[in-house]
Amino acid sequence: MKIGASMLATENITMEETLEYFDSSKCIEYVEILHDYPYRELNDDEEMIDMINSYSLEYTIHSPFIDLNIASLNSALAKLSVNEIKRSIDLANMIDSDIVVVHPGIVSFSGRGKEDIIYEIAKDSLKDIGDYAKDNGANACIENLPHIEGFMYQDVNLLNETLTELELPMTLDIGHAHTAGFTPDEIYFNSIKHIHVHDNLGDGDTHRTLGEGTFPVNEFFDIFIKNNYDGIYMLELYSIDSIEKSIEYMKNLGLI
Question: What would you report as the CA-atom Rg of the chain, rounded to the nearest whole angstrom?
């Protein structure tokens, strides 16, 4: 089983401290780098790139999402957002990563009533991003979003249909799917190439330790193991303590 952890858990320490911690872990093989504030400029920092490449870890990239919207009705903002994600694909090449996680967009308050148009803009943007990733030897893995007003592709079925049409892979976020009311047996798709793992109570995207929410985590692992999912299970949690407790939970299930 391929296990990774997101830098979301280490926002209060330096990149070097983060990688030192993960490199010393007996279970974490992959680290998901958040290519957003304060690390947007990684592409231009040769020393930081060399430092990242010096560890015996493998990496995935979470492309930026702060203040971005690839589905914006403002074409300039949509284009800027797409270009920011393309920079993450460029970064993936610098650190020998082939997975770039992408958020599919937002329906803003002023976009209400124009959802059909916005979803078409999103589809065009996703195709552009996906083509750029393919041309550069990477996978742009599009993520289902949580049940928050305005967030697009909360419905994993709709996301899967879109990605199947565009021939793009999915990042399945099980916590997001839980907030949208989906159960483990409703969220397995052949398009899934990457998974974000965390728990919640179903009423908010709280990124809890595994077993501390109400998502049937055991059932989820059973289904994906039986279906021979061979991608990374990326722990997307808010603290190192939560990572360690989640790893212990997985050990108790006999997964590690």
Answer: 17
